Each structure stands twice: as C-alpha cells, then as structure tokens.
Amino acid sequence: MSVRVLIVDDQGLVRAGFRMILDAEDDLEVVGEAADGLEAVASAARLRPDVVLMDVRMPELDGIEATRRILAAAPTDPPRVLVLTTFDLNEHVYDALRAGASGFLLKDAPPERLADGIRTVARGEALLAPSITRRLVEEVARARPRPTPPAGLDELTDRELEVFRLMARGLSNGEIAADLVVGETTVKTHVARVLMKLGLRDRVQAVVLAYESGVAVPGGGEPALG
C-alpha cells in the first residue's frame, strides 16, 4: 500500500517541488497540500494522511502548534509528522520534537533523502538519530527550567528506568544490551514497555522527555529523582 502524504508549506513553489519528487515514487501518494497551519490541521483531519511534511514558519498557525493539534485530534491513530526546516538543530526543531514530530529534514536534503525519510517515519521509526537528538536536547535543556516528572515515570521498574536513561544517551538496543550485559531481545522488550508506560511514540520523544523530566541531565551524570 502507498504511504499517504500531506505537504504543508506556505510557499507554493516549495510544495510543487516536493510533490514532483514524491509523485515519482511508486509507494508514495500525495493526498493534499496546505499553505498554513490552520489549513494543515483541517486537511489532516479530512484526508487522514500517514505522514505530514510540516514546515515550521508559516502564517496563521506555525508548524509546531499545527503538529500539536494534529496529533491531539487523532489520539488512537495519529499521522507521523516530519518537520521540514532550513535550520539545523535549533530551538524550532526542539519544539517540534517536543510537540510530537518523529524527526526533521532540512529543506535542501536530496530527493532520495526526503522519500526515504517519509518511509522511515511511516514505519513508526524515528527519523532523527537519538544521538543527534541528545545533542539538540542537551543544548536547549541547559537554558530551560526543569518541569515536574511526567506521568507514568513512577510506573517504571528499576531496570526500565535504567534502560530509559541509556536511551536518553542515544544508545542503540545493541549498545544498551552490551552495557547491561543482557540479550538484545530483552532490551527491545524493556524499550517497548518504557514507551508504552510513558505514552511515547518513539525513541526521539523518549530522549526529549528524559531531559525535560530530569531523568537525564546535560553533560551526563545521574540526577536525583523523587
């Protein structure tokens, strides 16, 4: 089945360029376009795309708030949001990830990178490498106050909390398995439980939440919890 894509950007030429790229892919289908955040929210509800390509800076409603509203409107089967930006690793990207985006791409990325990125998030994976997310979140988290711990954190077992901290460091399942001296299948089970208990979609959101909640701290170390 084709991946259904909604393109959101306030520049018509940009939308046309993305459509041309995606129309050349047999497994990707552009189901609609939107020129601002409000139109994106309405189009996502009407068209039910699998993936939303979301610009950040737009009139009426920016891409960050549009992402938040789109995901809130479809809690049981939300689309994946892939943020498009001209700026690498800045606060806009951080806020988009915090709002629930599954990753970001630079607008000048090669066409094959765009297509592959859409396929990646459509499969339920996070596009942005956790290690890169960690660098971004650490940088922004230093300048922001730490909020209260998230709901569900106290439901994690000691081992799940340990896995959560290692996820926040950007470690892969294999690296976590080596660190804890357990099997990779066991790690996958722990990761799935962490995501489920904390209501997270993927590892990118896990990294963001870990730093925001104080489970992980910029520069490393073990924070005091409770």
Automatic annotation (TrEMBL):
Alphabetical keyword list: DNA-binding, Phosphoprotein, Transcription, Transcription regulation
Residues recorded as bearing 4-aspartylphosphate in the entry: 55
Residues of the HTH luxR-type domain: 149-214
Location of the Response regulatory domain: 4-122
Record PROSITE patterns: HTH_LUXR_1, HTH_LUXR_2, RESPONSE_REGULATORY
Keyword rRNA processing included in the entry's annotation: no
SUPFAM superfamilies: C-terminal effector domain of the bipartite response regulators, CheY-like
SMART domains (alphabetical): HTH_LUXR, REC
GO molecular function terms attached to this record: DNA binding
GO biological process: phosphorelay signal transduction system; regulation of DNA-templated transcription
Family annotation (Pfam families): GerE (PF00196), Response_reg (PF00072)
Descriptive protein name: DNA-binding response regulator LuxR family
